[in-house]
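Q: What residues go here?
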């Protein structure tokens, strides 16, 4: 697949403080990339650089094959951006605002009419397009923010915390819209909400203290096999008793009669061994690696130090 965004050795300093440290990645057509990190990790600084709102200290950014630093206007024409606080003119109606945004992107009259009609339909704004933006719910205002980001049909869309402050129904609606947009665009979803990434993204990256510390396809992450197993036993047996069996290299009790065990045996042989012990095996399955577990392992202990840092 063609690369829509190419980031090479990107860094950003604020004085002596390094907010983003030498990161590189690519976004392909059809990707919905979840860009995760704790507060102060460098997410927003990275998004601001990708959108051309913040100059990098070092590094290169290419958008749809165009160097953002050398040809900023041409590169930005291929980009749609929804910042954390949508740039809405709330005294305008939805249609007036989207028409204004289309003209900013230099759409001609015919293009403008078709483009605004298309994004109003795609973003579920047909029932409110004549209303003042200030009178809309937060969910509808987020939809308007997404609509302005795609009114010029950019191949690349960057969404920074698009569901912050929404109620559960609005969150589901925005996630569904993002998945639909991902069918015809490359999307970077910047968030700290783990279920959001798991719900809509096909790739995930984690940034911590300015460095990319994890990158994986979502399917590969969810299907990743480990040597840890989730078992339930009807017999009354303690974790200490299980540890006396050399086939277990680790045993963790997570509930009454339920354990996470670690073993180098193949799953069929381990299952056979447990059955032979007559412990009353009622549950047996691989303990899969979760995005939450990976995130906590990579970022644990940094919340306090990051909170005082000056860049998001």
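A:
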């Amino acid at each position: 697949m063609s690369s829509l965004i190419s980031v090479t050795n990107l860094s950003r300093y604020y004085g002596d403080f390094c907010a983003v440290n030498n990161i590189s990645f690519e976004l392909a057509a059809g990707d919905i990339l979840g860009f995760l990190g704790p507060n102060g990790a460098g997410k927003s600084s990275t998004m601001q650089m990708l959108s051309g709102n913040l100059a990098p200290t070092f590094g290169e950014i290419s958008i749809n094959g165009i160097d953002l630093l050398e040809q900023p206007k041409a590169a930005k024409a291929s980009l749609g951006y929804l910042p954390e606080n949508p740039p809405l003119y709330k005294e305008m109606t939805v249609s007036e605002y989207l028409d204004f945004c289309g003209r900013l992107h230099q759409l001609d009259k015919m293009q403008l009419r078709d483009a605004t009609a298309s994004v109003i339909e795609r973003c579920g704004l047909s029932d409110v397009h004549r209303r003042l933006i200030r009178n809309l719910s937060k969910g509808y205002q987020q939809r308007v923010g997404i609509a302005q980001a795609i009114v010029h049909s950019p191949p690349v869309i960057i969404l920074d915390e698009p569901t912050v402050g929404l109620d559960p129904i609005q969150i589901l609606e925005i996630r569904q819209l993002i998945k639909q947009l991902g069918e015809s665009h490359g999307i970077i979803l910047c968030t700290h909400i783990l279920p959001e990434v798991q719900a809509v993204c096909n790739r995930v990256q984690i940034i911590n203290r300015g460095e990319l510390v994890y990158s994986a396809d979502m399917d590969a992450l969810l299907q990743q096999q480990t040597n840890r197993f989730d078992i339930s036993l009807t017999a009354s047996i303690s974790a200490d008793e299980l540890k006396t069996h050399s086939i277990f290299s680790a045993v963790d009790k997570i509930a009454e009669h339920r354990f996470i065990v670690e073993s180098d045996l193949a799953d069929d042989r381990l299952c056979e061994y447990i059955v032979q012990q007559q412990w009353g095996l009622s549950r047996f399955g691989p303990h899969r690696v979760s995005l939450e577990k990976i995130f906590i392992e990579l970022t644990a202990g940094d919340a306090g130090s990051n909170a005082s840092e000056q860049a998001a």
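A: Context that may help when evaluating the design: The first strand starts at residue 3 and ends at 14. The mean pLDDT is 89.
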